[in-house]
Amino acid sequence: MSLESYMNQIGQQARAASRLLAKASTQQKNMALLAMADALETARPRLIEENLKDMQNGKEKGLDAAMLDRLLLNDARIDGMIEGLKQVATLPDPIGEITGMEYLPSGIQRGQMRVPLGVIGIIYESRPNVTIDAASLCLKSGNSTILRGGSEAFYSNQAIALAISEGLSAAGLPPEAVQVINTTDREAVGQLITMPEYVDVIVPRGGKSLIERISKDARVPVIKHLDGNCHVYVDNEADEAKALKIVLNAKTRRYGVCNAMESLLIHKEVVNQQLPVLASALEEKGVELVGCVQSQAVVSSISPATEEDWYTEYHAPKLSVKVVDNMDEAIAHINKYGSHHTDAIVSQDYTKARAFMTEVDSASVMVNASTAFADGFEYGFGAEIGISTDKIHARGPVGLLGLTSQKYIVLGDGHTRDN
Amino acid sequence: MSLESYMNQIGQQARAASRLLAKASTQQKNMALLAMADALETARPRLIEENLKDMQNGKEKGLDAAMLDRLLLNDARIDGMIEGLKQVATLPDPIGEITGMEYLPSGIQRGQMRVPLGVIGIIYESRPNVTIDAASLCLKSGNSTILRGGSEAFYSNQAIALAISEGLSAAGLPPEAVQVINTTDREAVGQLITMPEYVDVIVPRGGKSLIERISKDARVPVIKHLDGNCHVYVDNEADEAKALKIVLNAKTRRYGVCNAMESLLIHKEVVNQQLPVLASALEEKGVELVGCVQSQAVVSSISPATEEDWYTEYHAPKLSVKVVDNMDEAIAHINKYGSHHTDAIVSQDYTKARAFMTEVDSASVMVNASTAFADGFEYGFGAEIGISTDKIHARGPVGLLGLTSQKYIVLGDGHTRDN
Question: For chain A, first and last CA: distance in Å?
Answer without folding.
Answer: 54
